[in-house]
Amino acid sequence: TAQHPLLEVSSIAGGYGDITVVRDVSFTASAGRITAILGRNGAGKTTSLRMVSGLNPISAGSIRLGGKDVGRLAPHARTAKGIAYVQEGKRIFRQRSVQENLMLGSYPLRIPRSQVMKKVEEAFDRFPALAKKRDVAAGLLSGGQQQMLAIAQALAPGPKVLMLDEPTTGLAPAIVGELFDLITRLRDEGLAVVLVEQAVDFCLSIADEAVVLNLGQVVYRGDAKSASTRGAVEATYMGVE
Ligand code: ATP
């Protein structure tokens, strides 16, 4: 069957004010697959995800979800349509309880409290370690648990696309493994995952597709496991084009 990519990002451009950071970025994400986005610091990975989530505007190109243009919708509207974005650095409300953080995850859906609570309970079923700490302030959780909470919060609205920005940064190796197991499981459940990671080898080992950015442009797209992908990634990280 000809599988239509769920998310189609085509030649987007944008930046901050007058500064263009992303010049020409295209990638796709499909149900049940992980798309890795790689590239050196400053390549435009975070900015690209911000544009797909709606936090930054696009000045050119298009963003389609299930064939429909979403590139000019507000962030909460994109969340409601199924695009979830876990920002770099565990953006959770540290003073709020774990349960309150999960409740806020469904806020963009504008649904009644009873339905919000149902989604919170679903999150606790998936993350039993968080269930044990439901009344604890999120800032008191371990780094790994804070990242799990950020992901659980993003999953609460029931997204189709999950974009993760450097989820393993600052985590102990054992926790990194746990996190990658979770990401793989979510992929296997049918989510379209977009993963930006510093841990390149780890990332390529679980990814299906790889996109390499340099100076705001795509310099390589290919199967994550192919030797030519490794070559392209190494060349880019060493600054050779
Ligand atoms: P990193 O791994 O460092 O996050 P990245 O590939 O995600 O790298 P971006 O964060 O998208 O890269 O940054 C791309 C460029 O945009 C960098 O040169 C950065 O300095 C610039 N930039 C990022 N945020 C802003 C901002 N708020 N205002 C102006 N320039 C910014």
Automatic annotation (TrEMBL):
Coiled coil: none
Domain of life, per lineage: Bacteria
Cross-referenced PROSITE patterns: ABC_TRANSPORTER_1 (PS00211), ABC_TRANSPORTER_2 (PS50893)
Annotated signal peptide: none
Domain (ABC transporter) ranges: 7-240
UniProt keyword annotations, A-Z: Amino-acid transport, ATP-binding, Nucleotide-binding, Transport
Pfam family, one: ABC_tran
GO molecular function annotation: ATP binding
Family: Belongs to the ABC transporter superfamily.
Protein name: ABC transporter ATP-binding protein
Organism: Arthrobacter hankyongi
